Amino acid sequence: MVGLPARGKTYISKKLTRYLNWAGVPTKVFNVGEYRREAVKQYSSYEFFRPDNEVAMKVRKQCALAALTDVEVYLKEEGGQIAVFDATNTTRDRRDMILSFVKENGFKVFFIESVCDDPNVIATNIMEVKLSCPDYQGCNVSDAMEDFLKRISCYKNSYQPLEPDGYDKDLSFIKVIDVGRQFLVNRVQDHIQSKIVYYLMNIHVQPRTIYLCRHGESEYNIKGRIGGDSGLSSRGKKFAMALSKFLDEQNLKDLKVWTSQLKRTIQTAEALKMPYEQWKALNEIDAGVCEDMTYEEIKEKFPEEYELREQDKYYYRYPSGESYQDLVQRLEPVIMELERQGNVLVVCHQAVMRCLLAYFLDKSADEMPYLKCPLHTVLKLTPVAYGCKVESVFLNIEAVNTHRDRTEEGKKGPSPLMRRNSITPFASPEPLKKPRMGSFDEFSASSSVDASVSMPSEMPTSLSAQPHLARACLRAVFHYLKMFPLLILRRT
C-alpha cells in the first residue's frame, strides 16, 4: 500500500484480503501501525511522526522490517500466497527497501496507491475510523482530530507519489484516485495482479444495503429432497407475500432484485410485483447424480459419496456435479456486480447464500458450508468501515429446517484418501441416474467421426463393472482418439 494517512489504505487492504481469501488465494494483511503500537505502548502525539524525529524514525523503520520478516515467514513457511503490506510507504527510500526485500526473496510486488484530496472524504474517514483507534482512546474528538491532521502534515512534506512516466515507470501498480473516481494502472504482469485491479475498479464506499434470502419453502424442501426444480409450497407462497410487505416497509430507493433461473426463486420474486433479473450463476449447487434425492437415499445408494462429503464438505464435488469451491468460482461475477451496485435483494438458495454470506462476513472455507441460512429469513447486510453488519429478520412464516450440522466425522477433517475436488471418486459404482450433461455415449453418437476409424478393437467397450475413475479415463482416451484424425486434417 502507498498513500497518506486517512486515504483508505487499511480499508482497501482488509477488503481485498477478504475477497482473495474467499476466492481461494491465501492472503494476510501486515499492518505496520500495529507493530508500531506494540513497540511504543503509549502514543503521545503527532510529534512521533515528524521526519526530523530521529529516534522515532528508527523505531518506525524497525517496525517495518519486523513486519517484512513476518511477511517472509508467511509466504515461505505458512502457505501464504499474497501478503498485503499495509503502511504509508510514502517515500522512495521506503519503497526501495521493499523492492530490495522482494528481490532478495524472489517475490513479486504490486503497489496500490490511494490518492485523495477531497477534504470531506478525509474528514469522514478520520471520524469513522481513526478517532476510534487505540492511539486516541480516552481523547476528546476535537483534540484527536487536530492531532491527526497534524500527523498527516508530517507525511505530506516528504510524500513522493508513484510516477508512471518517471522514476516508477517499471513498477507494477494501480493508483486509486478519489475513492474510485479515476484509476491509473501501470505494468500489470500476471493474472493475480489483473484480478486485483479488476476488483479495485468495482468497489465503492457509497452507503447501501444488501438483502439475502432463500426462496420460499419448496415442495422438495418438505420432502427433504435436494436440487431439482420444484415450485413453492403453500407456506412458501405466504413467505413471498410477506417478503413483498417487508420490502415495502424498508422504503428502499432503486432496489434491484436478483434471482436464479430456478422456479422456486422466480415464483418468490413474482410476488414482489417489481422487476427482477435472473442469474444462472445464482442456481443452487449442482448435486449431479444425487439430484432429486434425500440424504437418506444418498447414504443408501452411494455410501462412499455420502462419507466423502461428510469428511470435507467444501472441497467435495458431487459426481457429475459441483463442490462449494466450484460454486465460489461461479459466484465471482455476482460478487463483483454486488460491489458495483447500490441496494440489492438476492433471492437464492442455501449453498449459494452461504457462499455470498461467507464473502461479506469474512468466513473461512471450512466454516462456509455450515453457515445457517434458514428459510423465510432475510439477512440485511450493511457494509461498514472494515467489515459488514448483519441483521437477521424472520418473517413469521414457519418452514422446515434444512440445516445440517457438521458431523463428528466432519470435525476430524478429510481422510488421507479424500477426493479433494477431483472430477470422480477413487471408486464408486457407475450410477444409473443420468447426469444433467449429455453422456459420453450421446456425444459419440452425434460425432461426425466414425469411432471405428480411431478406436483399437482390443479396447474394452463395456465398462459397467469398471470403477468410476477408470471409466472417466477411458472416455477421455476414446474422445482423444476419435478427434485425432480431425487434428491431422487441420494441421495439413
Question: For the terminal residues, how far apart are their CA atoms?
Answer: 53 Å
Indicate the low-confidence ranges by residue numbers.
Answer: 420-467, 476-492
Structural class: alpha/beta
Number of strands: 11
Strand content: 5-15%
Helical content, roughly? 40-55%
Calculate Rg over CA atoms. 27 Å
Task: Tell me the series of helices and strands, N- to C-terminal.
Answer: HEHHEHEHHEEHEHHEHEHHHEHEEHHHH
Q: Numbering strands along the chain, what is their spatial order in the largest sheet?
A: 8-7-9-6-10-11
In short:
The chain has 492 residues and is an alpha/beta fold. It has 18 helices and 11 strands.
Task: Write up what this structure looks like.
- This protein has 492 residues and is α/β, with parallel strands linked by helices.
- The protein has helices at 9-22, 32-39, 54-77, 92-105, 119-128, 141-156, 191-200, 219-223, 234-250, 263-270, 295-301, 303-311, 324-340, 350-361, 408-411, 440-446, 451-454, 468-491; strands spanning 27-31, 82-86, 111-115, 173-177, 182-186, 210-214, 256-259, 277-278, 344-348, 377-384, 387-394.
- It has 18 helices and eleven strands.
- A six-stranded mixed sheet has the order 8-7-9-6-10-11, with helices on both faces. Strands 3-4-5 form a three-stranded mixed sheet, with no helix packed on it. A two-stranded parallel ribbon has the order 1-2.
